[in-house]
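Consortium newsletter contribution from the modelling node. Members have asked for a concrete example of what our holo predictions look like. Here is one, prepared for the iron/sulfur cluster complex that several groups have been discussing at recent meetings.
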Amino acid sequence: MQESFFEENSSANAQKESAGAFRDLNDLYEQSKNCRKCRLADTRTNYVFGEGNSEAKIVVIGEAPGAEEDAQGRPFVGRSGKLLDKILEAIGFSRDDVFICNIIKCRPPANRNPLADEITCCMPWLNAQLALLDPAVLLLLGKVAANTLLDNKQSMGNLRGKIIRWNGYDVIVTYHPAALLRNPNWKRQCWDDVRMLRSHYDKTIHK
Ligand code: SF4
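And here is the predicted structure:
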């Protein structure tokens, strides 16, 4: 671990409040899949809840579904998803070892960044997912996911390369796979981040 610090905000309370509202992930999916709380419901093809191991100690969180994810209703299934699979495989994990989801559950048109009111509308679903999954580690992919969840405006340079203690989770931030496809030079730093994730997992979770 290179550095730790602690941040606390109202999300902790939001997640605790979410814990009792749903029986399990299936119940949450059933109650959220027809959500129309924001304008993205009008343009989506599919709601993208997320998928993976409901007992996972690691939750991988991206920004929002892209075109392929919107078409299939599954997270990280396009080119970015294939790269994410390779990144996980490189540190000895498969999709079955983690749970993968996004901050926003419906695709923003033309893959634009989610708007503030869309994030506000959608965050309760992610808070409920985290409350039910109760992971130890969050791997946040990209600046939008990190700034949204950590409620800050820090740069990737400040966010990555360390373990952030936040709301009871150990949080590691790295580049979004889509950014790595555009800028392969960042793969080295991503590799450093995910090796830190593996090492932290082995030392503290899977002892
Ligand atoms: S993006 Fe989130 S809040 Fe908006 S409609 Fe989809 S699930 Fe509901």
